[in-house]
Structures are given as structure tokens and as C-alpha cells.
Design brief:
Distance between the termini: 38 Å
Strand content: 25-35%
CATH architecture of the largest domain: 3-Layer(aba) Sandwich
Helix content: 25-40%
Number of domains: 2
Oligomer: single chain
Structural class: alpha/beta
Radius of gyration: 19 Å
Number of strands: 13
Number of helices: 10
Shape: globular
Largest sheet: 6 strands, mixed
Order of helices and strands: EEEEHEHEHEHHEHHEEHEHEHE
């Protein structure tokens, strides 16, 4: 049985302390900050997250770009040449053209290396919604599961990867077309904090709203606790955009309920942060009520 490599884009936001360099192949993703181009890798080597969110708070505008077909061709060709099969877990196709580029690249590389198998999974998720799928795929791989077995599990369970989050500044959602300019202005004036989720088709949808940040965070925790899937088997991740104290508070609220196997904190990367902005708090976990 050929060995397979798990490939992700940097939008998975996997904290580097959770894996070794041989566990995953992670493709960097690009973004622009005030028209200056950066490439975000797992180490955030071109710009730290502290500096990125500081720039956002000071008014800088960031825009992202998808992983290109040539990037996928280079990555897949290198791995196939080295004798690997490939399991690629993609950012939601409804959020980016990345998945389609990966599928095209896979076909081209398999034509060159007919002995190789390349499977791309559309996660219909983002950030650690992809990350929790990848960590489970890695666990199964290390337990001796085949590429087909792991890919089949991902297809069957990817809709259990849930993301619930609330943002601090509605203008980032407005720029991304998620809400109207009018709603953003009214919401900001009234301190309205929307509760958002990634739906079954990978789009971001509102599921509630609260007035004030602390109320929104409590509502977020309540929603998470209503939806866990096999919580004693999986880790729950609390993500933040330069708001670690809030993330710690939510972590402690979740830990007090003793529902999940573990609760860990991570920071959303620049690619995801470009769309939601500093102060965003989210919880990503395996759940059973994805809309």
C-alpha cells in the first residue's frame, strides 16, 4: 500500500504545535494589505499576526487570493514524483475557487504519474473546520487506515465540522458582501453582534444576534453546547483574531461544562482574518446541527 500525504491550504489555520512538519503538506496562501502582497505560511514568516491585526485596527484593508493552479501542480507533482498518493482537504468551494483548481491539478498530475491516486475533498468549511477534519484524517492514517478509508470517512463526516462565531466589527463582513452597508451601520450603532455559522453548503449565514460583546460570547457558548457530536472523542477549538483574553474566557466556560475531550485556543490566520477582522471569536468543533 502506497503512503499518502495529507495536503491542506494555509486557510486551515492549524496551530504548528499540533503536528510535525512531516504530517501535512501545507500550501501558503496570498493576501494583500493596502496593496502590498504577502504570502501566509504556517509560521506567518512575512508578517506576524500581531502586526497584521494591528494594521487592520489602524484602518488597513486586506484582501485574499486563492491558491493557484500552478501552486497545486507544483505541490502535487513533487509529492507524486516522491512516491506519495495525495489526500487534499480543501477550503470550501463556495468561499474560494481553490477546490476547482486542485481537482484540475490532480487530473493533470495523475496523467503524468498513473500509479498515483490524488483525492480532493471539498470540506465545505474554513479555518479549523478544515483543521479538525485534517487532525482526524492524520489520526486514522497513523492507525493504518488506507487513503480510500480516510477519504470515505471525511466525505461521510465533513458536515459534522461546525463553526460558530461572532465578529466585533460588522464592516469587515460588509466589505466581503456578507451583510449590507445599511445593516452594518445600524448594527454598529446599536452594538449588535451577529452570531454566524458556516452552513451545509459552506456559506456564512446568521443564526442569531446579541447586543454587546459579552452577551454575544455567552450566546456563542450556549449554541455550542447544544450541538456537540461525540464530544468526548474530539477536541473543541476556540479561535480568535487578536483577542486571546476573550478566547480564554470562552475556553473556561466550555471546560466548566466538562463536555468536550479537550478545549484548545488558536488564532485565526491572516487569510481568514481578512474577512472577519480583529476581535472575532469562534468555536470550531464536531457538531450535529449544521444548518
Amino acid at each position: 500500500m502506497r503512503t499518502f500525504k495529507i495536503v491542506l491550504e494555509q486557510a486551515a489555520d492549524l496551530p504548528i504545535e499540533l503536528y510535525t512538519k512531516d504530517d501535512f503538506e501545507i500550501i501558503p496562501m496570498g493576501y494583500h494589505l493596502d496593496d502590498v502582497a504577502y504570502l501566509e505560511d504556517a509560521q506567518h514568516s512575512q508578517m506576524s499576526l500581531t502586526d497584521f491585526y494591528k494594521a487592520q485596527r489602524e484602518g488597513s484593508i486586506s484582501k485574499t487570493s486563492q491558491v493557484t493552479l500552478p501552486q497545486f501542480l507544483e505541490t502535487f507533482d513533487s509529492l507524486a514524483k516522491a512516491g506519495y498518493d495525495i489526500l487534499h482537504i480543501s477550503l470550501a468551494s463556495t468561499l474560494s475557487g481553490t477546490y476547482n483548481s486542485a481537482v484540475l491539478a490532480g487530473r493533470e498530475v495523475m496523467a503524468i504519474y498513473p500509479e498515483a491516486t490524488i483525492i480532493s475533498i471539498d470540506s465545505y468549511s474554513a479555518s479549523m473546520g478544515i483543521g479538525i477534519l485534517a487532525l482526524e484524517a492524520l489520526r486514522q492514517q497513523q492507525a493504518g487506515k488506507s487513503l480510500k478509508d480516510v477519504a470515505d470517512w471525511l466525505e461521510k463526516h465533513k458536515m459534522y465540522a461546525m463553526a460558530l462565531f461572532t465578529v466585533d466589527d460588522l464592516n469587515h463582513l460588509k466589505r466581503g458582501g456578507r451583510i449590507s452597508a445599511t445593516n452594518a451601520a445600524i448594527g454598529s450603532l446599536l452594538s449588535i453582534k451577529p452570531l454566524l455559522t458556516v452552513s451545509h453548503d459552506g456559506t456564512v449565514i446568521p443564526i442569531g444576534k446579541s447586543r454587546g460583546r459579552k452577551t454575544a460570547q455567552k450566546k456563542l457558548v450556549q449554541e455550542v453546547l447544544e450541538a456537540p457530536y461525540k464530544p468526548q472523542d474530539f477536541t473543541c477549538f476556540v479561535g480568535h483574531c487578536d483577542s486571546v483574553d476573550d478566547a480564554q474566557a470562552i475556553k473556561e466556560m466550555l471546560e466548566a461544562e466538562k463536555v468536550f475531550k479537550d478545549v484548545k485556543i488558536f488564532e485565526f490566520g491572516s487569510v481568514i482574518g481578512s474577512h472577519v477582522g480583529p476581535g472575532t471569536i469562534g468555536v470550531l468543533f464536531f457538531g450535529k446541527n449544521r444548518q
